[in-house]
Design goal:
This protein is α+β, with helices and mostly antiparallel strands and 306 residues long. It has helices at residues 33-51, 93-97, 113-121, 158-172, 202-219, 271-278, 290-300; strands spanning 6-11, 14-19, 24-26, 31-32, 56-60, 70-72, 84-90, 103-109, 124-129, 145-152, 181-184, 190-195, 224-225, 237-240, 250-251, 256-257, 264-265, 267-268. The strands form six sheets. It has a six-stranded mixed beta sheet, with helices on one face.
Length: 306
Amino acid sequence: MVEQQRTPVEVDGHRLVLTNLDKVLYPTAGFTKAEVMQYLTAVAPALLPQLRRRTVTRVRWPHGTGSESFFEKNLPAGSPRWVQRVSIASASSRSTREGREPETVVYPLIDNVAGLVWLANLAALELHVHQWRVDAEGVPQIPDRLVVDLDPGPPAGLGECAQVALLVREALQGVLPGPIIPVTSGNKGLQLYVPTPQLRAADDTRALAQGLAEALAAQHPHLVVSRMTKAVRPGKVFLDWSQNTRAKTTICPYSLRGRGGSPTVAAPRSWAEIERAANSEVDVLRQLTPRQVLERLQRDGDLMNV
């Protein structure tokens, strides 16, 4: 059995023992666990506000993205006591169908760089969050944003997602007064984030998203679908309104993705980039790397904070 390389460190006043910092987590790029930690530390001023008071589910790749991953909701055994946590009854669709009591999930709340480094040490590359936050007592609040998730069915790509993003922006004008922020997902598609401080019930956000998806699918059937059925999705963009249901999570802006051999990031984009991609006959919009995201943050500031 190979002995782990252990490195004691102190981050934000918290002691951590980091393991195997030279382990390659992205085999194509040779991107190591240490480099994941370096990215998360550098991007923390933009990432932590997106995580604040949101319960975090994780996708972990213990042996790198070339191997199996697993999805994790509960705080793992042996987690440091300083990691904030909240217990929430989670009624999954399966437990509801089977008539079982909701399970209680103990979620971590990540509010500092030490928490990000701890997650990276576990090879938790993807951080997914709900559209709601918890209050000081750990009680889930009404969702504070609407997420429009645009998922292209090949051969459609980011260009088609950009076209649909413009349709969504036009449809929401006068409906929601806040800024609409486009985010390339780091995987295949694109998300649009819209603050919803005026909505007063959790179901309002879901109903608004579903109505928007169905209306655009009816108006633009050659480009948009609102049903998850794979048979109807090739060459079109699926507007996934279900991301706004209480149980669903979405990749957190500025989180890494683990879907390939090279790291990409869920990253906010400018509307000028979206408009250029929508009007181009070639694929000009690409998913961004950690280095590109950090360069853009330094040059343009945090586009999530507009």
